[in-house]
Amino acid sequence: MNKFFLFSSVLLVLLSACQPTSAGSASIGDLTWLDANANGIQDAGEEGLANVTVRLYDASGAKIAETRSDSNGRYIFTDLQPSDYTLEFVASGYTLTQPDQGGDDARDSDPDPATGRTAAVSLAGGQAAADWDAGFVSKTAAAPTTTPTPAPPPLEPEEVVFRGEFGDLQGRYYRAATEPAPLVVLMHWIGGDMNDWNEIAPWLQNRGLKNPYPNPGTDPWWDPSWFPPVPEGRSYAVFVFSFSGCQPGGCPRSLTPEMWQSDGISAMNYAATLPGVDPHRIVAIGSSIGSNAAIISCGQVANCSGALTLSPGAYPDDVQEIFNRHSQAHVWCLADENEIAGCEMPELANQPAYRAIEIPGGGHGTELLQPNLDPLPMQLILDFLALVFGE
Q1: Mean pLDDT over residues 68-80, rounded?
Q2: pLDDT score recorded for residue 149
Q3: What is the spatial distance between Cα 176 and Cα 205, in angstroms, rounded to a whole number?
């Protein structure tokens, strides 16, 4: 045999033995994508995210390779020896989505958002691990929001002081269950002050409040056991106040019609600014001198849906002023057989929004608020409010 040929053959065999081989090598890779709905799952229509930096670490924690995902979000590391590896994903302007969602390893995101790294990946010889994905959410994307459940308005009444023409006035505000709410302004008679309404105000508020104030007496309007129930779901904001100088025992001789009328206007204007009030749905209910104040103030303020009086309290021109200023308003006048003539105003006979209602045996003013009357004034108050507020 030719010596040169033999040498060449041996040399080729040796060179072949020295060449690297891919036999037994492994790979790892797959997809980086934009998780548009931030649910941690690769949903149909969600696109791959390009230029994500992907780093490969060996079992000792040393970085051995780095690449970037392509225009389709694909990446891969090849020619890996059997061992344990860890992947790290970094994308400027993005954060990693929630991992291990949905129960399908081919569609979830694998790295921990806190570290950017996956758990250790054990590769066997020749294994192609093609399901190591990373989902990202834009840092500038609007975070999912939930509508918080609003806290209910305070249940307990709020003591307030407001300015009147003749000095500061005391009042209390009972907030309704839902807001903005229709408002009832209650105006007392000459024999008391705002405490006349201690039981009636929470009754109209209809939120289960027990009267937190001592009642000045034992008259029927301080005994809620007989009150007709306010229909379920109805809750009114209620504002009560005391006319200038009035106390639980009554009002001073110095209180004049000019003063209580002015106080009523101040109270209506102030009450319209209270939090949670619908300023376009306000009524005035008054007793005796409070009836006069309710009618006068309803006809003078910017917004008033109507007035109800317990015993006559005004002249036809005062009532007509309400209709002139508030075309949709209603006015009811309640009185017993001794005072009903004061409610029956011939000038208003053709006004359908005005009613004179006789309460036999009722008495004067706040005395009308007692049980066993027919019709029952407390029920008429509820009927009036339902009419005026369209309930």
Answers
A1: 95
A2: 77
A3: 6
Question: Rounded distance, CA 259 to CA 240, Å?
Answer: 17
Query: Could you read off the pLDDT of 160-214 as tens digits, one per residue?
Result: 999 999 999 999 999 999 999 999 999 999 999 999 999 999 999 999 999 999 9
Q: Are strands 330-335 and 354-358 parallel, antiparallel or unpaired?
A: parallel
Percent of the chain with pLDDT over 90: 87
Q: For Cα atoms 145, 148, 150, give the angle at the middle one, nearest 5 degrees.
A: 155
Q: Which helix (H) or strand (E) holds 382?
A: helix 377-388
Mean predicted confidence (pLDDT) in 13-17: 34
Residue 4 has pLDDT above 80, yes or no: no
Distance, in Å, from the CA atom of 53 to the CA atom of 67, rounded to the nearest integer, reads: 6
So what CATH class is 158-388?
alpha beta
CATH 2.60.40.10 assigned to 23-138: yes
∠ CA 284-360-185 to the nearest 5 degrees? 10
In the sheet that 53-57 helps form, which strands lie side by side, from edge to edge? 63-68, 53-57, 83-90, 121-123
Kindly list the domain boundaries of the chain, sorted by start residue.
23-138, 158-388
DSSP run (H or E) holding 385? helix 377-388
